[in-house]
Amino acid sequence: MQRILPSKSQVLGFLAALIFLNVVGAAVQTQFNIGHLLALGIEVPFSMRISTTLQDIVYLQPLFGMIFGTGFLVAMIVGSYIAAWVKILPDLVFALAGFAAMSVTLFSLKAAFMITPIGAAREWDGFLSLCIVGALAGYAFSITLARLNRPA
């Protein structure tokens, strides 16, 4: 009989990857927004960059986690099936799944709202940066899962 519920290592791996996705994604989003302010000629001291980044990580994380966490969950489930089917390079499979989760979520937000609500994704470099964060989170899921499943 096939297992339906996720294992403890899958849940822990997903939570670790989701935390990574939220923290790094919020930080990337903030830095791109600050970069746009700098391009307008507004001076932003380094201390304000740090405090704004930390504040965004704390306050943006619940919304960011809900929006991108849903797509990331679906991508990791699909990635698990693909990795089991392919049986080679699971790190690459999960990284590509994370990249796809971010890109599909960002495109879906644009299609649903007719604007890009995530400021960093309004230009190609921010969009690509957020997708790379998704890929790194998928990779984090894969290596966490492998380490937790490794015999002691």
Structure write-up:
The structure is a single chain. This protein has helices at residues 8-39, 46-86, 90-113, 124-149. By secondary structure, the protein is mainly alpha-helical. It has one domain (8-149).
Question: In terms of topology, how is this protein built?
Answer:
Elements: H1 8-39, H2 46-86, H3 90-113, H4 124-149
Helix pairs in contact: 1-2, 1-4, 2-3, 3-4
Q: How is this structure best summarized?
A:
The protein has 152 residues and is an all-alpha fold. The protein has 4 helices and no strands.
User: Total number of helical segments?
Assistant: 4
Query: Which term fits the overall shape?
Result: elongated
Structural class of the secondary structure composition? mainly alpha
Q: Whole-number average pLDDT? A: 91
Integer count of domains = 1
Strand content: under 5%
For the report, how would you describe the main beta sheet?
none
- Uncertain runs are none
Number of strands: 0
Helix share, percent = over 70%
Please provide the ordered H/E string of secondary-structure elements: HHHH
The N- and C-terminal alpha carbons lie at a distance of: 26 Å
What is the oligomer described by this structure?
Answer: single chain
Rg, nearest Å = 17 Å
